[in-house]
Amino acid sequence: LTSRRPEPAPVRTTCGYCGVGCALDVVVREGEVAAVLPARDGPVNRGHACVKGRFAHGYLTSSERLTEPLVRRGGVLTRVGWDEALGVVASGLRAAVGQGAPDAVAAISSARATNEENYLVQKFVRTVIGTNNVDNCSRLCHAPSAAGLTASFGRAGGTDSFDDVEQADCLLVVGANPVEAHPVVGARLLQRALDGAVLVVADPRGVGLARHADVHLPNRPGTNVALFHGLAHVLVDEGLTDPGFLRDRAAGLDELTPLLAEYPPARVAAITGVPARDIVAAARYYGRAEHPAIVYGLGVTEHLHGTDGVRALANLPILRGAVGATGRGFGITPLRGQNNVQGASDMGALPDLLPGYGHVTDPAARARAEAVWGRPVPTTPGLRIPAMFDAARDGRLRALWIIGEDVCATDPDSTRVAEALDACPLVVVDELFAGETARHADVVLPVASWLEKDGTFVNFDRRFQRVRTAVGPPGGARTDFAVVHAVAAAMGADLGCRTPAAALAECGRLAPDFAGISHERLDREGALHWPCPSPDAPGEATLYAGTFATSDGRAHLAAPPYLPPGEEPDADYPLLLVTGRRWAHYNSGSMTRRGANLGLDPQGHLDLHPEDAARHGVRDGAPVVVDSRHGQARLTARVGGDLAPGQVFCAFHFPDEHVNSLTSGHADTATSCPEYKVTAVRLRPAQE
Ligand code: SF4
């Protein structure tokens, strides 16, 4: 008889790619990930997952993984031990503070990191360095959502649970291609449409859900505010608003009404390129539905007027009375891009906001944090990410710690980003691989990925879920949590909260919305929505029953005028470039390009209309050179009809193509979120 050792139970964790937050069961054999299976009881995914969550784990065992710290010696990144690397970081940070005061140091935390790591990073920056110069990559995607939704409703998150959206009889999907970027949500939305909900899609491209839409509104990039005002105009004009809700629970109608009069469908059609009859049809669908829901993506936020766009879109459920647990609709839900965009901001990795969104200029919010931390909190808001690069270029910033972001591949106008890093005396990068940014670093610290650490993420509908270690990190790589502790210790400081569970518990002591959430509770209950103010609170899936979280308890209508984007096509740059994501890859592609997913989608493309291809002498499948006012990229043409003539599209998953050298420095006037969605470009065939 032979005795078989029982297989270890799969490790339940939360996907580390997009913000949907799929629960995954990781099968581990002999210390390696053998399979990743979608959890049947996953609260968001219910037995589904996409090609990223399921198959993009080959990077774990890639021979290119960083396993030892690297320090630049004589211009070359050289392997050193942890003690030496930590010493270089600590002395560099001390020197920067000594020469330029605490504000000469900044950190970019990460939406890829856990909540607990983000909490620890901002605590380090505020209490050990003594500055508010900490930000995270939500700056580059959903900062306008946080600002806009807070101004409209009071909290920096979606108004409803995605489970509610599934009861909707009209889905308005705006500026998003969830079939590729958030595939499990895309599938659930499509199922809802197939089950009978009316589907309205507002997006320049005719891909994904747009192919199944009852009405598709392909508005010209950069014209969102006009489009949303046009829809609101029809709601008001045709009596499709909720007068009782507007009287009892809203504010701002007197300012909005005269503005909407300036946006009749005919004028909006001229601005957006969408036929007036389709604007009217979409507004009627939304206005006449029993339970309308809005889901939106980065096509709303990544604009010069992104926060205005969020606010103009948020006007629709307010006018309709379809928000605030009224039973008449399911509000508005932003599709967060990265796995933990919501959580990184919730944890206070922001230059103006503390954990739980208390403002650094608010004495009461500072006092709550100081009581827990035992250290003063700086009173001046810190630098946002784009301002950090500006400060590095002009010498004000002398040390920058970048945690898990390949900013030279993913941030806009990447040539200038690289110049900024080169000008900064100390650049420290926590990374899995030596990517574009590491080329400009003085110290590179090898760290663990989402399958190699413990903690929590918050998904797109405000759900905390557990992240659990499936396998150990390779070689000497450490978790970001351990690295932040070690850097603090090297500077003679003790951040306390030695474990991720202790860090989340500490965060709950100064952020009442998270006070009832703990690792122990999540292990027992699976997921919890915030706000969850006490250990016996169930967590609020649907917000604003009875009152909104604004200062007067009302939902606030906004009246921003439509203003044009930062760049318009002209004779020199006649095409508009929109960037986005594709189904098999994720952001810079550092993980998804190292494994099975590369075979599914091996190279980037520039999508363009047949008319533009003919006009520029470009063949399908041929290499093209794309120029903008900011840089140049080389891509492969993919000729098709999903875009209007004059518009081109590409993803940014392949750093060798340098797509973000094309994108501009234009950014949302309220939040500095870059205008990735509108860049004027020209193209020509490349030498084959
Ligand atoms: Fe789910 Fe998004 Fe992960 Fe795909 S990438 S498995 S949709 S969380």
From TrEMBL:
<keyword id="KW-0677">Repeat</keyword>
<keyword id="KW-0479">Metal-binding</keyword>
<comment type="similarity">
    <text>In the C-terminal section; belongs to the prokaryotic molybdopterin-containing oxidoreductase family.</text>
</comment>
<protein>
    <submittedName>
        <fullName>Formate dehydrogenase subunit alpha</fullName>
    </submittedName>
</protein>
<keyword id="KW-0411">Iron-sulfur</keyword>
<keyword id="KW-0408">Iron</keyword>
<feature type="domain" description="4Fe-4S Mo/W bis-MGD-type">
    <location>
        <begin position="8"/>
        <end position="64"/>
    </location>
</feature>
<keyword id="KW-0004">4Fe-4S</keyword>
